[in-house]
Amino acid sequence: MTTGTYVVGLGNTRMGFRLGVPTEMLFLEAIKAALDDAGLKKTDIDGFSGRWTAPGGTSLHPGSADWSTLLGQPLSWIGDTYPQGPQGLMDAAAAVAAGSCNVAVVVSGQGQLAGGLAEYTRPGNEFVAPYGAFTAANFALVAQRYLHELGLAEARRVREDVARIAATIRTCGSVNPEAVLTGKGEITPEAVLASRPIASPLRLFDVCLANEGATAIIVAGKAVAKGCPSPVEILGVGCEWQRQQYVMAPRLEDNWQVGAAGARKAFGMAGLRPEDADVRSFYDANAFEIARQFEVLGYCSFGEGAAFAVENGIGPGDRMPTNTDGGLLSYSHTGFGGPHTRASYAIRQVRGTAGTGQVAGVETAVSCGAGSGAQYHGTIIFGRPS
C-alpha cells in the first residue's frame, strides 16, 4: 500500500549565507522553479502550505492563506499545521488524496537573516528566552545524557565515531558545487573534535549551518502525475509529536526515541524495511542526530547508531549512503526549511539528479525531519512510480 500521491515538481533556489533577497521572493523563485519542473502553470495550484513572511499579512502564523493574494487566485486547501518537511508533505498528500485539492505546493526557507544567532533558535517561550536556551543547547542536553548513559569508555568511542560521521558529511558537502560550504576541502574527525565548543558535547563542526534559500515541492495525485516529466511516488509517511518545540527542555528518557512509532508507520505503509531504502537524507541538526536516527528507524539498538554508521559507511559508495550532499552540516540549513531541503535531496536521489552525491541505482529514499531536541520527528519515504 502507498499513499497514492506523488511529488511532481521540485524547485530549489541557490543556497548561501547572504543572498540579499527577501524570504517571500525566494519562495516565489522556488515555486516558479517547481512549476517549471512539473510542466504546470500557476493557475494549476489550488492548495498551498507555506509561512507568510511579508508585510501586510496575518500575525497568526503560519498564514498560508495570505499567499492566495500573491498567487492571484483563491485556494481550496491550505496547510498551516507545520508547512515543511515530512509533516507538511503528509498534510498535502492527505489533502490531495481526500480530494480537497488537486495540486498542492509546500514551500519553506528563509532570507535576509540578521547577524548573530538565528532568531528562530531562541523563541520567546517561558523557559527559553529568560534562561538563554537555544536550539543547539536543547539538542546538546539529550546528546550529553546519551553519552552519560553509555559509560565513560563507551562514550569516548561514540564521541569519536560521531566526529567521523560529521567529517564524512561535511567532506561530501565540500565537493558539492551547490553546497554553501563547497570548496572547503576535506574535513577530518580530528578537526571536528578540535573545533570550538558550542554546547557540550557539541562542537562547531558537529552543528548545522544557518543560511538562506528556499525549497518548493509540489504534490499531486496520479492523474496529474501522469502528465509530469519526473514524478516521484510518496510511498509512506509517519510523524510523532511529543510537544511543541523549544517550550520545555528535552530529556533523553522522553525524547531519544521520538519518531520511532512514526518511522514504523512510514515503512509499514510503504511495505518496506529500513534496510530496503537505498539512500538516507537524515535531519542532521547535529551529527549525534545521525546516530540517533539509525537507532530510531530500526537499523540498530540504543547506543549502536554511531558505530553502525562508521562500520557500514555513509559515503556515496558505502553500504549506508547518508546525506551525501553535505546535509544540514554543509549543504544548507534554511531554518524552518531545513526538513524541506532534506526531503528535496531524497527526491533528487530517486530521480537520479543528485549531482556529486548521487548514489547508483536508487529505487527508494527515506528522509527525516526534526529530532530529539525539537521533541518531534517525521519520516517520509519516496520511490520510483509503480
Automatic annotation (TrEMBL):
This is Thiolase family protein. It comes from the Bacteria. InterPro entries: Thiolase, Thiolase-like, Thiolase_C_2. The lineage of its organism: Bacteria, Pseudomonadati, Pseudomonadota, Alphaproteobacteria, Hyphomicrobiales. SUPFAM superfamilies: Thiolase-like. It comes from Aquibium pacificus. Residues 261-384 form the Thiolase C-terminal domain. It holds the Pfam family Thiolase_C_1.
